[in-house]
Amino acid sequence: MNLDIDGHLVTAVSFDYAVGLSMDGGLDLRIETTMSLRDSAGERVTFDPQDSPDLPTIVRRLVLMKRIKAATAREDTGHLCVDFEDGVRIEVAANAHHEAWSLVGRSGVRAVATPGGGLTVWSSRS
Hints:
Layout: E1 10-15, E2 19-23, E3 27-31, E4 35-38, E5 44-47, H1 55-63, E6 68-73, E7 80-84, E8 89-92, E9 101-104, E10 110-113, E11 119-122
Antiparallel strand pairs: 1-2, 2-3, 3-9, 4-5, 4-8, 6-7, 7-8, 9-10, 10-11
């Protein structure tokens, strides 16, 4: 599923037991479980947002003020993949017990990776 955030710019990054990416246009992505971050050179690091003291520095350096090239989520598993124009990639797999990530998009659309895998999408029109 295309998450309709392609081309948006990450304008702020926040940390509070999760990683929050705010984008132009009022879009917000919140990652609450283990995430994989690959830099443009192909180096991959996996972090738990709740237990990674170096995460704020690394995430800000790699994604702040960068434009998203493509973002997709698998409806059957909830696996999230966000690619940036410079080759950086964030991936978040489903979590057995928690919502791994959520996105608040345009016009009140909300997508949530459900515990155990899967994706639920609500719209303001539902």
